[in-house]
Design brief:
The chain is built from 22 helices and two strands. By secondary structure, the chain is mainly α. It has two domains: about 375 residues, Sodium/glucose cotransporter (Up-down Bundle); about 30 residues. The chain has a two-stranded antiparallel ribbon with strand order 1-2. Helix 4 packs across helix 17, helix 7 crosses helix 16 and helix 9 runs parallel beside helix 13. The longest helix is centred in the middle third of the chain and has 36 residues.
Length: about 575
């Protein structure tokens, strides 16, 4: 794709946005407690207000990948992907009622400290390493995405783009603590909404009205909400998007350390729950705007698809191509778009660096070394910097993972599903043991990674495209059918089911192993007959408390009978 040189207003807007992002980081670096303690650097002293946390929860895993990936998804495969929003309506009450009260009650720096309290040290280390792997892979894609945009819009070489974005992200990630991350997310989200709204408004004007977007999309078969097939090999159906989306997004919002850490930055459990509830409308609004922008771009290029015409080389370049092809008549719009992508990745990577630094200092360094209190804050920032550089290296591998949306959801499905299963085993059962948790996690993740990255894999079929309106070689392009039997069945399963497979595997295998090979539970090793109710989901915790209350009178009588004063 040929690059377009920025105009002066584009550079001014982009530079202004980055200066504002940097100013937020610098302000919080030198204000308040000046981040001298890990409590302030990692958890914002637990006194944040609800609004920035709610917006940040939405922005954490929605950034540039959402703008490019979801818009391209709707353009090439239709609007059925919007059904995934229904799963989010189930996620919020599930998180607030069953998972969040446990984490908030414990008030631990690392989410994985819970697993040591519930099971033991081995599963804590295993899950921490798994989370680290997951976030390294994901943030490699996050850094790759804006580099893709910069190359498309400015013509800047992808290698230089990755280095530029990566080094800037690493610099500000090291400077900014959690307060800077949260407020940068608010700025980033405003830019994301502005970019999407400008695309929809501009395309509506050029098409002759907002309704023309859906009329032309319908003519091209993009309004496709009728796939209720239970066949797991079909890429997107109502079942895969709701059930698969539920497990994938539940793993992100209920037990992922990046999100849980943000939910612990407020003062009370009720405020933490409100943060989750208020993130819902932001999430849905951004998702609907992104889906609509994809349809709007399709309506513009309905008769001359830029990918088929050789104008772009990747589906993820679609939105940037539209911006530079159709919207450069208004000075500054290209700069606003790129600034939105750039700052989106900045805040996402900053959050990941912050979260991984917390896990590293708490779960690794703190266990193996005795660190003086004065050095902990410095080591945390060094760890954040190191992770930023690691993301930079992995960004160069992201282009081999396919479309950024599917790549991101595949990683979260393959790793997130089994991780959710382990936490669910711990919180919802008293019989699960450390051996069952460890073996089910390792085997479950091996299975999901094999399903996700094994090959050869069948091609992803797109809806019909057209180049009839292009200058040369006008034709209707229909997907080339393939023989499904020539591919291994597990490689044909939709990536949306991966998380559910991993979750169910861990629950079933973990239960079987725990019941067949009995182990002493941590509370039994400590000489107690009952587990600590604080380690279990509220309904089970209430039941355990009642059991203890029922047995108290019996124990008192028994002690009195044996001559022991109670």
């Amino acid at each position: 794709m040929a690059g377009t040189v920025f105009g002066i207003w584009d550079y001014i807007i982009m530079a202004g946005t980055m200066v504002a992002s940097g100013a937020i980081g610098l302000y919080f670096r030198f204000s308040g407690g000046k981040q001298k303690t890990n409590e302030e650097y990692l958890l914002a002293d637990r006194n944040m207000s609800i609004f920035p946390v709610a917006v940040s929860l939405m922005a954490s895993f929605m950034s540039a990948i959402t703008l490019l990936g979801v818009s391209a998804e709707n353009y090439y495969n239709g609007m059925i992907f919007v059904v995934i929003n229904l799963s989010y309506g189930l996620i919020i009450p599930t998180c607030t009622k069953f998972y969040l009260p446990v984490f908030f009650g414990l008030q631990k720096t690392s989410t994985y400290e819970y697993l040591e309290l519930r099971f033991g040290s081995k599963i804590r280390m295993l899950t921490s390493l798994t989370y680290t792997l997951q976030m390294l892979l994901y943030n490699g894609i996050v850094l790759y995405t804006p580099a893709l945009v910069l190359e498309s819009v400015t013509g800047l070489n992808r290698l230089i783009s990755i280095l530029a974005v990566g080094l800037v992200c690493t610099f500000y990630s090291t400077l900014g603590g959690m307060k800077a991350v949260l407020f940068t997310d608010v700025l980033q989200s405003c830019l994301m909404f502005a970019a999407l709204i400008s695309i929809i408004v501009f395309s509506s004007i050029s098409l002759g009205g907002f309704s023309q977007i859906f009329i032309k999309a319908s003519e091209g078969g993009r309004i496709n909400f009728n796939n209720f097939s239970p066949d797991p090999t079909q890429r997107h159906t109502w079942w895969s998007l709701i059930i698969g989306g539920l497990i994938t997004n539940l793993s992100l919002n209920a037990v992922n350390h990046t999100q849980v850490q943000r939910l612990l930055t407020v003062s009370t459990l009720e405020r933490s729950k409100l943060c989750l509830w208020w993130s819902w409308p932001f999430y849905v609004a951004l998702s609907l705007l992104t889906c609509t922008s994809g349809l709007a771009i399709y309506a513009v290029y309905k008769d001359c698809d830029p990918l088929s015409d050789g104008k772009i080389s990747s589906i993820d370049q679609l939105m940037p191509y539209y911006v530079v092809d159709a919207m450069t008549v208004i000075p500054g719009l290209s700069g606003l778009f790129v600034a939105g992508i750039f700052s989106a990745s900045l805040s996402t990577v900053s959050a990941a660096c912050n979260a991984l630094a917390a896990v590293t200092l708490t779960d690794y360094v703190g266990r193996w070394c005795k660190v003086r209190e004065a050095y902990i804050a410095v080591l945390t920032k060094l760890a954040a910097c190191a992770y930023g550089l690691a993301f930079l290296g992995l960004a160069f591998l992201a282009e081999y993972l396919g479309g950024v949306l599917q790549a991101a959801l595949t990683i979260f499905g393959a790793v997130g599903g089994p991780l959710l299963g382990v936490f669910t085993l711990g919180m919802f059962t008293t019989y699960a043991t450390e051996l069952g948790a460890c073996l089910s996690l390792v085997s479950g993740m091996s299975m999901t990674l094999w399903i996700s990255f094994g090959g050869p894999r069948p091609p992803t079929l797109k809806l019909p495209l057209s180049t009839e309106g292009c200058a040369v070689n006008g034709t209707i392009i229909t997907p080339t059918p393939y023989d499904p039997s020539s591919y291994f069945y597990l490689y044909r399963i939709s990536y949306m089911w991966t998380s559910a497979i991993g979750f169910i595997w861990v629950m079933v295998v973990g239960t079987i192993i725990s019941l067949l090979w009995r182990q002493q539970q941590p509370w039994e090793k400590a000489g107690r007959t009952h587990p600590d109710p604080a380690l279990f989901t509220p309904p089970l915790a209430r039941f355990l408390k009642k059991q203890v209350e029922k047995e108290k009178p019996v124990m008192c009588e028994l002690l009195k009978y044996n001559g022991i004063q109670h």
